[in-house]
Amino acid sequence: MLKFPKEFLWGSSTSGPQSEGRVSEDNKGDSIWDYWYSIEPEKFHNEIGPEKTSSFYQNYKEDIELLEETGHTAFRTSIQWSRLFPEGTGEVNEEAVGFYRDVFKRISEKGIKLMVNLYHFDMPMELQKIGGWENKEVVYAYENYARTCFELLDEYVDTWITFNEPIVHVECGYLNQYHYPMKVDAKAAVQVAYYTQLASSLAVKACHEVNPNNKISIVLNLTPAYARSEHPADQKAARVAELFQMKSFLNPSVKGEYPKELIEIIRKHDLTPEYTDEELAIIKENTIDFLGVNYYQPMRVKAPQYQWNPEGPFLPAYYYESYDMPGKKMNPYRGWEIYEKGVYDLAMMIKDEYNNIDWILTENGMGVEGEEQYRKDGMIQDDYRIKYIQDHLKELHRAIEDGANCHGYMLWTFIDCWSWLNAYKNRYGLVELDLKTNERTIKKSGHWFKELSERNGF
Question: Less crowded by CB within 10 Å, the N or C end of the chain?
Answer without folding.
Answer: N
